[in-house]
């Protein structure tokens, strides 16, 4: 079965044990990794993420945050999963600290595709059984496998 890039949720980076004492340091570490992989400047990304976070928390509840941005100079979509070594305060809608961050970055011109990806990520990250499995996964390979399986089930149910 053919699955378009737009439907497939392909993770570009997994950080299975991100250590950070605060959201600021977590985002700095993430932005540095994104910069190394994409060439998109870490400082620019960090500033935009923090501005967005101040406007509205990316914490959607149940220990999950889904920060997302459309970036005019980004060449292709980028999806990252970070599992935090210690949950951090994110001002989430349910006031629970966050230990799973799924970040979506899309090219500026990717409007409808960005929204579809964001919707799929949101549905995926609201599955309680998957969240428990992600929290207990041994390493990056196990995290990737769990998310790929969850994404395939989500597509099959659509």
Question: Could you characterize the architecture of this molecule?
Answer:
With 158 residues, the chain is α/β, with parallel strands linked by helices. The chain has one domain: 3-Layer(aba) Sandwich (Mannitol-specific EII, Chain A), CATH 3.40.930.10. It has five helices and six strands, in the order E-H-H-E-E-E-E-E-H-H-H. It has helices at residues 23-38, 42-55, 111-124, 128-136, 140-157, and strands at 13-18, 59-61, 64-65, 68-71, 78-88, 98-107. Strands 1, 2, 3, 4, 5 and 6 form a six-stranded mixed β-sheet that branches. A hairpin with a 2-residue loop joins strand 2 (59-61) and strand 3 (64-65). Helix 1 (23-38) packs across helix 2. The longest helix is centred in the C-terminal third of the chain and has 18 residues, at 140-157. The chain starts with 12 loop residues before the first strand and ends with a helix. The relative contact order is 0.18. Residues 1-6 have low confidence and may be disordered.
Helix-strand blueprint:
Elements: E1 13-18, H1 23-38, H2 42-55, E2 59-61, E3 64-65, E4 68-71, E5 78-88, E6 98-107, H3 111-124, H4 128-136, H5 140-157
Parallel strand pairs: 1-5, 3-6, 4-6
Antiparallel strand pairs: 2-3, 5-6
Helix pairs in contact: 1-2, 3-5
InterPro entries: PTrfase/Anion_transptr, PTS_EIIA_type-2_dom, PTS_SugarTrans_NitroReg
Domain PTS EIIA type-2: 7-150
Keywords: Sugar transport, Transport
Could you list some keywords that capture this structure?
PTS sugar transporter subunit IIA, 158 residues, alpha/beta, PTS_EIIA_type-2_dom, Mannitol-specific EII, Chain A
């Amino acid at each position: 079965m053919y699955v378009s890039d737009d439907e497939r949720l392909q993770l570009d980076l997994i950080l299975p044990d991100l250590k950070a004492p605060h959201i600021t340091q977590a985002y700095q570490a993430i932005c540095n990794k994104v910069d190394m992989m994409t060439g998109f400047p870490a400082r620019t990304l960090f500033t935009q993420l923090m501005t967005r976070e101040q406007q509205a928390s990316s914490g959607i509840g149940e220990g999950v945050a889904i920060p997302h941005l459309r970036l005019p100079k980004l060449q292709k979509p980028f999806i990252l999963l970070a599992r935090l070594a210690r949950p951090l305060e994110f001002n989430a809608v349910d006031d629970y600290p966050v230990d799973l961050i799924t970040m979506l970055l899309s090219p500026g011109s990717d409007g409808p595709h960005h929204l579809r990806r964001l919707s799929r990520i949101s549905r995926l990250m609201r599955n309680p059984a998957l969240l428990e499995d992600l929290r207990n996964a041994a390493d990056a390979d196990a995290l990737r496998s769990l998310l790929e399986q969850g994404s395939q089930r989500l597509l099959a149910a659509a």
